[in-house]
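Worked example 2:
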Amino acid sequence: MRETISRLRQSFEEDCAAVTGSEDWKAVRDKYLAREGGLVTGALKKLRELPKEERPAFGQAMNALREFVEDRLDARLQAVKAGERDRKRPFVDVTRPGVPLAPGSAHPIKRLQAEIEEIFVSMGFEVLDLPEIERDYYNFEALNMPPNHPARDAQDTFYFDDATLLRTHCSSVQVHSMETRKPPIRAISTGKVYRRDPFDATHSPMFYQVDVIVVEEGLHMGHLKGMLDVFLKRVFHPGIKMRLRPGFFPFVEPGAEVDISCIFCSGKGCAKCKQSGWIEILGAGMVHPRVLEMSGIRDPRVTGFAWGMGIDRVAILKYGVDDIRLFFDNDLRFLNQF
């Protein structure tokens, strides 16, 4: 009896040590523990053939052998699985130099936005962080746009309800700044604005704007022109020229369209400027008296000027980009050029 158990144990240990994979392990398990044909299982079935006085000792010895076989098989299975995982894992040569990671950089629109803010901060302006979800009053009504104004049409504006919307411009900085501050006021607001425009080479339903407001005693169009001249020269280059044309905006009176000399042909005329030598860049004007009054400024000596500009449009001109969609495609081949 003891010789039989000893031979089984020795045979199992040799077979278990030779296991190198899952298939080998299954074969060894079935060889010794299968219900039909397993060596340990078969030896246990011979218990009934022994004399009664020998059965207890034989049964205890065989149960101990069975537990030993099961424990060793479990341990061997864990080792086999670990080895298979290691073989599947790609080899890594830790002595090789590391792969350099490409450094990140600011998005060209955000970089230009920061550059514009820095220019105005250096001129004594305050940068206001205003909400993108705006009240209809600040976006339209307080800027002298009556309920029947075309800009308030639902086909042009993203409305949440009758009172709230996604702002269509940053011009609300005029009302917000005048309601919360006393003249002299110098404030700007930059950020995303939203309109129901098609997404094509020159339009986007979401784009960036900067709006500027200056309010104090004795301001006139000459002050506006002087500040615009300084700003545009710093954004583009010192040789840039500027001209003002009559324009209409509900929140300024008088209003002006502002052009700059074509940065591609230096004003000589090309396809970019349609042979005119000029490119329209922004709208500006003196703050409308009604806007001043609705914002709480009723002193006739106090006037103001304001203007707004699309940052994306400046980026297109400054960086020589033909398609505004490139700024929103997240294509690293394009973004890494800046």
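Residues 108-335 form a domain with the BirA Bifunctional Protein; domain 2 fold (CATH 3.30.930.10). The chain has two domains: 2-88, 108-335.
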